[in-house]
Amino acid sequence: MDRFAQFLRRQLDIDMELLRRAREDAETGTTHRCLITPIRGFRECELKTRLLAAHHRCGTGEGPCDELGESYPPEDERGCPTRALLGLPYADRPGYARRWRP
Question: Do you know which InterPro entries this protein is assigned to (predicted)?
Fold first, then answer.
């Protein structure tokens, strides 16, 4: 496994731990300092925006995943696995359809 992949997995583990603590804090009424800054949130939004832009034609026959044979048919609405995964963090929000889950 390369160092970059190890780094990314560790960061995800850290984020999950921070989220777990935040959930526990909400349940118990206590608070801890959160290490995720607004700048980090903006960076994550930029990342998702760029990925969505790169995959905006997937499912139409003209996207990068269409060329790889990894897109969904147009009636599916998700476009490709990348777009489906981008939507996953918002599965609890109003308007998210269960059929969009990856």
Answer: DUF6221
